[in-house]
Amino acid sequence: MSLSVFIAELDALASAAAQTFASAADAAALEAARVEFLGAKSGKLKDAQKGLGTVGKDDKPAAGKRFNEVKQAIEAAFAEAQTRLDASDAPVAAGPPFDPTQPGRRPRIGHLHPLTQTIEDLKEIMGRLGFSVAHGPEIEDERHNFEALNIPQAHPARDPLENFYLATAEKISGAPMLLRSQTSTVQIRVMENKKPPVRIISLGRVYRPDTADATHYPMFHQIEGLLIDKHVTMADLKSTLRMFASSYFGGEVHIRFRPSFFPFTEPSVEVDMQWNDRWIEMGGAGMVDPNVLRAVGYDPDEVSGFAFGLGVERVCARRHQVTDIR
Ligand code: DAH
Fold first, then answer.
1. Which end of the chain is more exposed for a tag (fewer CB within 10 A), N or C?
2. Closest ligand 1 atom, CA of 181?
3. Ligand 1 site, residue 21, Cβ cutoff 6 A
């Protein structure tokens, strides 16, 4: 065989192989093509190699070189087809490629309102001191908001302009009704329904027609505490409030009592707490007035008690260093 015929045959073989490999649609087709062209026993390349022995002696080196080039080209075409089929087997990537080296994105989750957190904390702290939680309605009658609390008709706290009286609720119930102005109402509701001893707190919304500013709002929250038992003293009140303040603010918190007046306590005090070198007004407290005990059918010669009412916004604002409750 002449060199040129040999080379022509090789070239035809190379392009046939390339075409067959390129059109193989799946692994089985490619494998069949591989056996056809590259098969070790009877592949077409193997056949072509036999022609090498028939070219003239002087043409051998050129023919051998050409044979090797074609062999490499066919093997390369096979490898390329293999890569193509492997890639099409892989799952189709959706969206931009995933980069595992990127820092994670922290999901933005919400949190409880600071007031709700404070309320939960206060319940937990007072629970440890043995106080259970009592509830009362936000729409109240005058007995629970005033009368049983020893607040007489002429008292300025009962001024209709200092309260949210509810005309519609009055029409339904037949008696004056108002949004409660203090959680002290719950003291009465608990004592009406339970014999002493009593050890409760009540947390909730109260309403007063105040103009909103940094420290006032027409709706705010109070925590009310009431303890009734035999031989309760002012010292019990003070140590309870001090433990309460220390637990909530953390560390040693000093308590100060200033003489004051509330119709439902005698004696009555204003409670200040020292925090970060400042005295902060927290609310009122005192020993439950005998008239209040009598109003709920308790005997003031048998039992005594203390009560306190603190502003939840105040303690919350202190701890979170918020200067405007709005
Ligand atoms: N109810 C009072 C207020 O809203 C606060 C208060 C003072 C509650 C003294 C008490 C108390 O239980 O003993 O201003």
1. C
2. 4
3. no
Domain stop point among 88, 105, 136: 88
pLDDT at residue 293 greater than cutoff 80: yes
Regarding whether 134 and 71 lie in a shared domain, the answer is no
Q: Which domain holds residue 39?
A: 3-88
pTM tops 0.85? no
* CB-CB contact of 312 with 118 (8 Å): yes
229 CA → ligand 1 middle, Å: 19
Residues 73, 142 share a domain: no
- One domain, residues 248 and 150: yes
- Residue 91 banded pLDDT, cuts 50, 70, 90: low
- Report the separation in Å between the CA atom of 308 and the middle of ligand 1, taken as the mean of its atom positions: 6
Decide whether any atom of ligand 1 lies within 6 Å of the 310 Cβ.
no
Please tell me the distance between residue 50's alpha carbon and the centre of ligand 1 in angstroms: 113
Q: Give the residue whose CA is nearest to atom 3 of ligand 1.
A: 182
Q: Is 309 in the pocket of ligand 1 (CB under 6 A)?
A: yes
* Number of domains present in the structure of the chain: 2
Q: Average pLDDT over the chain, rounded to whole?
A: 92
**Ligand 1 contact, 202 CB (< 6 A):** no
Pick the more confident residue, 28 or 203: 203
